[in-house]
Amino acid sequence: MNAQQLTKNQGLVFDVLSRADQPMSAYTILDKLRDHGFRAPLQVYRALEKLLEFGMVHRLESLNAFVACAHPNDNCCRHGTVAFAICNSCGHVEEFHDHAVDDRLDAFVKSKRFKAEKTTIEIRGLCSACAA
Amino acid sequence: MNAQQLTKNQGLVFDVLSRADQPMSAYTILDKLRDHGFRAPLQVYRALEKLLEFGMVHRLESLNAFVACAHPNDNCCRHGTVAFAICNSCGHVEEFHDHAVDDRLDAFVKSKRFKAEKTTIEIRGLCSACAA
DNA sequence: CAATTGATGTAATAACATTACATTTGTTAT
DNA sequence: ATAACAAATGTAATGTTATTACATCAATTG
After folding, report:
1. CB of B104 within 8 Å of any CB in chain A?
2. Quick check: A116 and A109 in contact, CB under 8 A?
3. Contacts of residue B131 in chain A, CB cutoff 8 Å?
4. How many CB contacts within 8 angstroms connect chain A with chain B?
5. Which residues of B46-71 are buried (b: 16+ CB within 10 A; e: fewer)?
6. Helix, strand, or coil here: A31?
7. How confident is the prediction along chain A (132 residues), in pLDDT tens digits per residue?
8. Per-residue DSSP letters for B48-76?
């Protein structure tokens, strides 16, 4: 159920993100793809839009940047909220899932009759290497 | 321990945010304050920076916008993570705190020896009124 | 093969945020 | 009071992120 068939631009953008060891902004991706014919931001944003839809890429709201999903083969990605620990120093991102957190937030929104569509959880700080 | 003494610009920005029934972008705030002599974005950003520091205002990362703290008199604001339920339709924001969620995220980052500095939790969706 | 749909290319512009530098105001020490 | 310092402000320019508008191209289908 994985291995989405990607178009040329989607494939290029996904490759760049997969190889990166840090989140990348749309414009950084654009620069990396100039050699492959990319000329305008929209080419990147359109590919990202689809990749986000496919669950292959995540957007980090606190960074205005994007990362390839760390668990692309894990269905969990699609059934729970994704949370991120983001190092402010080296940019390393740890992606995780916690159903207890999900349940707790769920309980809250249900109590408010709020209909959740998308949840963002991002922890900014220092990774073990950088904090040492 | 509340009632921070604000400067003129800080006070103006805080007033605008307090009266608003929705999050506001820095540029929207700027427009509201033209009559009071505001001319440049930096005047707003500088005031916001201090207000964020004082815990009187929150930044919504998924919206690039700002809201006055809903619980200014509650010390809880300063000792736990603030979470938001944001209506995509009417813009209403529900601010809440949940120590169980905090503890759970804490446990995760501790297990990774990650040193958390700031945590963002934002639930986008539809409020009870708009979902009906 | 016409019609539709999805993807792409390109330019322009909008929206959000920061850097740099000059000036003013407020506070503290003497 | 005033010198010295720190904090806040004013202004312009620029940098960064994201979208709108419009034209073209490619794949699919009736």
Report:
1. yes
2. yes
3. 113-115
4. 120
5. ebbebbeebbbbbbbbbbebbbbbee
6. helix
7. 345 789 999 999 999 999 999 999 999 999 999 999 999 999 999 999 999 999 999 999 999 999 999 987 766 666 689 999 999 999 999 999 999 999 999 999 999 999 999 999 999 999 999 998
8. HHHHHHHTSEEEETTTTEEEE-S-TT-TH
- Report the DSSP beta bridge partners of residue B87: B125
Give CA A13 to chain center in angstroms.
13
Identity of the amino acid at A95: E
Coil vs helix vs strand at B94: strand
Determine which of A122, A123, A127 to mutate to test the interface with B (most B C-beta atoms within 10 Å).
Answer: A123
**Distance, C-alpha B39 to centroid of its chain:** 23
- The nucleotide minimizing the C1' distance to residue A40's CA is C10
Domains and their CATH numbers in chain B: 8-131 (1.10.10.10)
